[in-house]
Amino acid sequence: MKNIFTNKRIFDASPAASGGFVWYIQRDKVVTVQSPATVANMVCGFDVLGFAVEAPYDIMRIQFSNQPGITIINEDDFQLPVEPEKNVAGAALLALLAEVPIPDIGLEIRIRKQIKPGSGVGSSAASAAGAVVAANYLLNEPFSKSDLVRFAMNGEKLASGVKHADNIAPCIYGGVTLIRSIFPLDIVSIPAPELYVTIVHPQIEVRTSDARSILKQNVLLKDAIKQWGNIAGLVAGLLQSDYALIGRSLEDVLIEPVRCILIPGFHEVKERARAVGALGGGISGSGPSIFMLSTQRNIAESVAQEMKAIFARIELAHHTYVTSINPAGIRVIES
Amino acid sequence: MKNIFTNKRIFDASPAASGGFVWYIQRDKVVTVQSPATVANMVCGFDVLGFAVEAPYDIMRIQFSNQPGITIINEDDFQLPVEPEKNVAGAALLALLAEVPIPDIGLEIRIRKQIKPGSGVGSSAASAAGAVVAANYLLNEPFSKSDLVRFAMNGEKLASGVKHADNIAPCIYGGVTLIRSIFPLDIVSIPAPELYVTIVHPQIEVRTSDARSILKQNVLLKDAIKQWGNIAGLVAGLLQSDYALIGRSLEDVLIEPVRCILIPGFHEVKERARAVGALGGGISGSGPSIFMLSTQRNIAESVAQEMKAIFARIELAHHTYVTSINPAGIRVIES
Q1: ipTM of this model?
Q2: Chain B contact set for A184 (CB, 8 A)
Q3: CATH of the domain at B312
């Protein structure tokens, strides 16, 4: 048995790791996390604002292994690849391990996915972010949240070809997050009041690449001004718990009018949700899921009923969730 | 002498006025206000974010007159027109009087302008907004702030051809204001921490129409995304007194790169201001004034020294102000 699999302190002199961090391997430690779904592209906050929800979430369990490198065990039916470099959790963990100055370290991760891939609520981000957050706890937290976002973005690169943090950031930070800048990475937590979230996932495929390609590269300055008036209003509404202002600001004049054509029933869902009291909402990520925000759980439940009725009428298989904004992000449930 | 010039209560049944408001004319009442300069187009907040400053300000004194309509007396050397329909304060007052259900009312306003017209710090807005705020006090406040903005916008229409509220809103509401939407008008106060402001007014003419005409009608979506990431960061920074975040967010990738060519010394002012500790800043309104924000008065004073040195070197007459954000907006100083 190798050294690192006995309990051991390793004083690290490598500048790659956090200065002076005492690496300590506790051989029999096991960490289990809940990694939640997330909503990116929060209406007027395209590419910059997102939030985590309480449900659905993936469950991931990580421990040290005698086998150097990453061992992935899928405990669900999605038949995702187990080769680390082909698996989003694996790709994120490989990026993390590259900054752990312990040779031949081995990690085993068991993944029970409950967030359906391709639904537009950050399934790949939950895998990538959950894996590195769990590994960070296993290693006694050598890395900052910002490091973890950086590692997890490698998972997103594998999933979509782009190193984006739209879902990673709210998954790791919790609540509503703003990605003010991607280079250099600048993530800002936006403390939000209690808000209930209704999500409907119509069972159609919207490829992220298609959703990207139909966007215009150029927009009218006057429309961009409307959009940044709304995002400023939304941030002010969230920070001041001004629900009416949040509702007035949940308007997207640039992206939604183009992308909504990919999602049958979109306008009706929005209209009916507002009619029964929702503040507003829009496309989750690049779709096909649609989310709506409400101030109360019973309104969020009425919204779900409306969504079900609409998709039943147009005969489209669908699934709804009634949940709330998750202020914590990924939770360690066992350690 | 007409009725209205004796002290008199008038019970109003006109639906045009605030419901049930008791109109009361106090013949000998005099109201004096300080109406401050304002900075519109707050960096990334083009067309939507602005703020009021403590100095400079105009002084306006209003009272009832035996002469029906508006009488304007200029107590400065700017030789602005005294015909109400040609004067921005007059145009704003005419809009207000149109909603006062008292026949043959007469108002006399004395204006001592201290904010130089054409300097880019809301000189016309100070006249228009100051006049209607003073008149509202004189009439015992029948109108809401939102009404007053609406009246004052008629002054801006006269000054620039456009009914904009970029300077009117912060002048009337004080502090930092967001115009989330212009139709319908939606003004949001953004409570800001204490911030010092240095303004330099280089004595060149930048016509608002020129500053508008050089802007591109179309912008790249990716630049617009950067801009709304920054405005979201700026609003969050202001509301949470996060000075570092305010500083990082004071970046304009769309308007400033085009308009700064109209202002000699612009880049040097920005660079030197940051070098001596300013958080950042940009073009005030459509120029030619430049403003910089600082956390402390002594930094704001160093910024002024740098500005003076730069414009002295390029031999351009200029004037600087060291002031602070004015949380109150227009102040009644005598009533």
Answers
A1: 0.93
A2: none
A3: 3.30.70.890
Distance CA B304, CA B307 (A): 5
- Written as six digits, the tokens of B205 are 């003419």
- Residues of B whose CB is below 8 A from A170: none
Note whether A13 and A125 are same-domain residues.
yes
The answer to whether A285 touches A43, Cβ cutoff 8 Å, is: no
Q: Do A49 and B232 touch (CB under 8 A)?
A: yes
Condensed to tens digits (0 to 9), the pLDDT of residues B216-275 reads 999 999 999 999 999 999 999 999 999 999 999 999 999 999 999 999 999 999 999 999
Same domain, B240 and B130: no
Q: pLDDT band at A19, cuts 50/70/90?
A: low
Looking at A176-190, B2-16, B269-283, which range is the least confident one?
B2-16
- Could you tell me the pLDDT band of residue A57, with boundaries at 50, 70 and 90? very high
Task: Kindly name the residue from B208, B295, B320, B323 that is annotated as catalytic.
Answer: B208
> What phi and psi, each to the nearest 5 degrees, are found at residue B34?
-105, 120
Whether residue A162 lies within 8 A of chain B, CB to CB, comes out as no
Give catalytic status of residue B71 as yes or no.
no
Residues A40 and A90 in one domain: yes
Active site residue A156: yes
User: Does A235 contact B at CB distance below 8 Å?
Assistant: yes
Considering B156, B251, B256, B306, which one is annotated as catalytic? B156
Are residues A233 and B45, on separate chains, in Cβ contact within 8 Å? no
Q: What's the pLDDT band for A3 if we cut at 50, 70, 90? A: very low
C-alpha Rg value of chain B to the nearest Å? 20
A218, B217: Cβ pair inside 8 Å?
no
What is the pTM for the complete model shown?
A: 0.94
Chain B positions touching A45 (Cβ under 8 A) are: 228, 232
Q: What is the pLDDT of residues A118-147, one digit of tens each?
A: 999 999 999 999 999 999 999 999 999 999
Q: Count how many domains chain B has.
A: 2
CA distance A224 to chain B (A): 6
Strands (E), chain B: 8-11, 22-25, 30-39, 49-64, 69-74, 106-112, 176-181, 186-190, 196-202, 218-220, 280-283, 290-294, 318-324, 331-334
- Closest-CA residue in chain B for A232? B232
